[in-house]
Amino acid sequence: MRLFFYIYFMKQLIIINGPNLNLLGKREPEIYGSQTFEDYLEVLKSKYSTVNLDYFQSNIEGELIDKLQEVGFNYDGIILNAAAYTHTSVGIGDAVKAIQTPVVEVHISNTFSREEFRHQSYISPNAKGVILGFGLKSYDLAIESFIF
Ligand code: DQA
Fold this sequence. Notes:
The structure is a single chain. The chain contains six helices and five strands, in the order αβααβαβαββα. The chain is an alpha/beta fold. The protein has one domain (2-147): Rossmann fold, CATH 3.40.50. Helix 4 runs parallel beside helix 5. The mean pLDDT is 95. It binds 1,3,4-trihydroxy-5-OXO-cyclohexanecarboxylic acid. 1,3,4-trihydroxy-5-OXO-cyclohexanecarboxylic acid (DQA) binds at residues 20, 81, 83-84, 86, 107-109, 111, 118. Residues 20, 81, 83-84, 86, 107-109, 111, 118 line the site of 1,3,4-trihydroxy-5-OXO-cyclohexanecarboxylic acid.
């Protein structure tokens, strides 16, 4: 009974990662670290065992928009690292605005301490909040923003 209660009220969250984040662990480790996201996802799942945590990654803008539309009316929260599309995609920005599920924008690096083109975000104006610069821990903080 208690287990049923628990499962019934578990929050349904999803992490959506954009282009090149499938290369974490190999890609510019001095900026993004040396851990793969698949490995880190296991850490997150065991640390936050009271949430249902889904994961989606794509290098394709339209697939990211399709996923936002698919989950954006029935999930409790979306953790979105749109990667380079953050700085260029009106389409992803519009999708974030169009859906009902709150979106927390996440970045591994502190985009404000990097090139100027990374200071612009099409996600932020419609995000619930923005977490950046804490390495992979940015994802932990985003999950916590939905559960505490
Ligand atoms: C990033 C920052 C973006 O500027 C960059 O294009 C990425 C990753 C981050 O998580 O720090 O691919 O979103």
